[in-house]
Structures are given as C-alpha cells and as structure tokens.
C-alpha cells in the first residue's frame, strides 16, 4: 500500500466538509462486495474495507443486508463503519469507529441515530447498489430523514488522484499489461477463447489481481464476415482460433482495489492489409484523444478529437460504447470522455482511452491509460502495442 491511514482520514474529513457545503447533515455511503468488482469503491476509498461475503436475502433476526457495507458520515461528528465480515488487517479506520455484525441494517440505523442523523437531509452515496427492500426498511425506521442523491460528493473527490493512488494505478496498469501480453502470446491457431483467458489469469492471479471481465471476440471480415463471441462468460466460445482470424482482447481487472483497463488486437497468422487498417485506426483514434489533453481542455473536447479522427479514417460512428473513455480508479471514475461531459481536465486525473472500430467485418480495438501531469501526460499502460 502506498496510501496510509492519514490519507484515508483526510478523505473522510473532505467528504464531510463537502456534505456540509452542500447543505447536508451527513452522508450514508453504501458499497457492495460479495466477491464482485461492481461498486465497492466508495467505502474502500474512505476506509480500505471490502466485504467478500456473497449477497443473500435477509433472514430477519439472523442477518440483514449481507454483502453490503455502510459508512455513516455526519457533517459534524465521528464516522462509523458497519461491516459484515472480520477485518483482514487492512481497514484504515479507528477500531472504536467500527461495528462488526450480521445485522447490518439494524446497526446502520443505530449508527445513524447515534450520529444525530435520524432527521434532516442525509445524502445517499452508492444508492445504485442499495437493495430496494433495504432502502424501504431504512425509510420506515427513519421517517424524518430525507435521502437526496449525493453521489457527486464522492465522485468529485475521487476524480483527482493522490501521488499514492497514482502509484497504485501505475502498478495495476503494469499488471494488466503483462496479463494481456500473456493472452496475446497464447492466441495461436487452435486455441479457444477460454485457453487465451487462462494464460492471462495465471499472470494476474500470481500478482494478486482479480479479473473483472475479458471482452473478447474473433472472426473474419470481407463479404461474408464471421463474428465469434460469447456473452456469458465472455470467454465461453468453444470455436478455436484459426489462420486468417482477427482477435480483439479488452480486459479489465483490479489490483489492490485499483482498476486496470487495456485492450489490444492482432491477427492469427499473417495480418492482411484490411486487418491492419482496422488495428491501426483504433490506435490513431485513441492517440488523437490523448493528444488533445492540454490546459483548459474539457472531457468533451477529447471525445471530439477522437471522433474527428474516426470520421477522417472512414470508420462508422457506431459501437457498444459511444464515448472515448473515462476516468479510472477504484472503478469507472469521473470524467466520461464523451460528448456532453464538460468536466475540465486537471493534473492528477487518471484517464482511460478506448476505441473499438469495425468496418466490413474487420475489428480493431485499442486502449491506454494515462495520468494527466502539469506539463502533459504519463502513460501508465506499457503493453506491447503492435502484434503484426
């Protein structure tokens, strides 16, 4: 860890100050773990705690709100962490500000009352992972509380990374780079998607990382294109790679709570001109977005630069993701590199640029992560770029 207890304490103070400035009496921050990598970041950011217990329905009197963790954070007063699993030694919060319980909902209500947050405006952070049944129970127990959405309090804090966070994101990006290189090396004729992923998992698991997903597809282009992919799991296709196929790999995962996100493309066997055109176009679009980073630039400006390059290269403006990327940290952070996001790009932001392009059945995919510095950028991903 390159982030110490003082920084975690400072984050809680800043969150409380932001809540007060927004006219809130405090915050209730919810995160969900359960072995997944979806939406655990807000509590981890404040306390360095993650619950691995899986989600199970409530059994009143025995357990409630399992797989969820809460931080009760009054605008004036001491915070409280309510968790459902033992401390693995990583929690960065005083022991007297923690409750370990199976009855997570009941202890969260008690902590809110103890903090004087049983009335007034309590901003809700992480409401998208809070089960409706749990939220209704909170409302029934605390009828005098208003629950305005306060997600921006944490997203605003998280979008600028500290030097310690940048170091952890650098390591995550490097682990992700080694992982995708192992996968690309394993992409030989006769290999299945699952075997390609397994080669990367061996590298990732040994580094203490966890795979979020492997967005992958292979196939052929031309007048009768073939697309080979699976949604669940994404590496579930049993059709092996063959000479003449193109392959795209986009992987994301987590190392010590921080996310990596990287993609590459290659040909199986000798690359054709049409395959190379798609591969190079994806690189060019991403690099155009990165090159647009300058003082005063907005996220939408970077997206526009990538879009202009894509149009110049003659690739359709369609795909599963219309943006050019996003902030990255303990999840997908602000800003979104997309039309309409007017967030100003600032030093300390860590940005992930991505683009998947298709034309005539050929597909190119490329993704890089950079940190914005005072005088430019530092690239964090260092995976081999060209495999042709």
How is this structure best described in words?
- It is a single chain.
- The chain has 388 residues and is of the alpha+beta class.
- It folds into two domains: 5-157, Creatine Amidinohydrolase, Chain A, domain 1; 163-379, Creatinase/methionine aminopeptidase superfamily (Creatine Amidinohydrolase).
- It is built from nine helices and 15 strands.
- The strands form three sheets. A six-stranded mixed sheet has the order 4-3-2-1-5-6, sandwiched between helices. A five-stranded antiparallel sheet has the order 12-11-13-14-15. It has a four-stranded antiparallel sheet with strand order 8-7-9-10, with helices on both faces.
- The longest helix has 24 residues, at 163-186.
- The protein is globular, with a radius of gyration of 23 Å.
């Amino acid at each position: 860890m390159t982030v110490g207890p003082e920084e975690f304490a400072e984050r809680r103070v800043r969150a409380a100050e932001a809540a007060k400035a927004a006219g809130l009496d405090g915050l209730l921050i919810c995160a969900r773990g359960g072995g997944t990598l979806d939406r655990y970041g807000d509590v981890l950011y404040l306390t360095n705690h993650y619950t691995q217990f899986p989600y199970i329905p409530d059994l009143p009197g025995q357990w409630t709100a399992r797989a969820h963790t809460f931080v009760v954070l009054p605008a004036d007063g001491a915070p409280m962490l309510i968790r459902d699993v033992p401390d693995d030694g990583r929690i960065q919060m005083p022991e007297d500000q923690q409750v370990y319980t199976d009855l997570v909902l009941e202890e969260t209500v008690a902590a809110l009352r103890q903090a004087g947050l049983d009335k007034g405006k309590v901003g809700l952070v992480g409401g998208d992972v809070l089960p409706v049944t749990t939220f209704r129970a909170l409302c029934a127990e605390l009828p005098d509380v208003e629950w305005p959405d306060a997600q921006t309090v944490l997203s605003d804090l998280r979008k600028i990374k500290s030097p310690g966070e940048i170091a952890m994101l650098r390591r995550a990006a490097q682990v992700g780079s080694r992982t995708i290189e192992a996968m690309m090396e394993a992409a030989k004729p006769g290999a299945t998607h699952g075997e390609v992923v397994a080669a990367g998992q061996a590298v990732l698991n040994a580094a203490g990382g966890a795979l979020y997903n492997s967005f992958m597809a292979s196939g052929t282009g031309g007048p009768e294109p073939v697309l080979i992919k699976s949604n669940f799991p994404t590496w579930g296709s049993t059709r092996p790679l063959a000479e003449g196929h193109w392959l795209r790999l986009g992987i994301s995962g987590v190392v010590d709570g921080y996310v990596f996100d990287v993609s590459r493309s290659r040909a199986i066997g000798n690359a054709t001109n049409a395959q190379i055109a798609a591969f190079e176009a994806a690189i060019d679009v991403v690099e155009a977005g990165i090159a647009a980073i300058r003082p005063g630039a907005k996220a939408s400006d970077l997206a526009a630069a990538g879009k202009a390059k894509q149009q110049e290269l003659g690739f359709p403006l369609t795909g599963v993701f219309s943006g050019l990327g996003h902030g990255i940290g303990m999840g997908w952070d602000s800003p979104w590199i997309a039309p309409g996001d007017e967030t100003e790009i600032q030093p300390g932001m860590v940005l992930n640029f991505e683009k998947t392009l298709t034309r005539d059945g050929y597909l190119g995919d490329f993704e890089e992560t950079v940190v914005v510095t005072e005088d430019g950028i530092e690239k964090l991903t260092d995976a081999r770029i060209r495999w042709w």
